[in-house]
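During the reporting period the student researcher (J.K.) took over the structure-prediction task from the postdoctoral fellow and processed the backlog of single-chain submissions. One of the processed entries is reproduced below for the supervisory committee.
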Amino acid sequence: MQPKRIPSINDNRLVIQFFPRQWNAFELNTVYTEQQPRWVWAVGFIGLIIVAYTWYMHFKADVPFSLVITLLLSLSLIKSSQVLFNYRQFRAFVARVLEKDRKTLSLINAVVLILGTGTILMGLFLY
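J.K. obtained the following structure tokens:
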């Protein structure tokens, strides 16, 4: 008889909502480590290229509602700049939100859900 295996963080990312402690450990010990990971700069640079390309296409192509999409995508620069240039403060914010201030986490999740749903609906019904 094999012993019961406890689910780990890597088993299924969708199930993580049911394991908040494991999610907190994953975020703080793997994603946002004490020292700023190198991947942050690579992802930030790629994000900047994507936003710049979106602005370029906004002015070059005649796409309806492109300004809305461009502005929504440009909002990602707020988080990118904080992660890149204020990493310690950003990590402290993440730790506070994950461990103590769950209302702020719920608010962030709700805003992301609304913006994501709006973007998907724009893609389905406007284009």
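The committee noted the following: The radius of gyration is 18 Å.
J.K. will present the remaining backlog at the next meeting.
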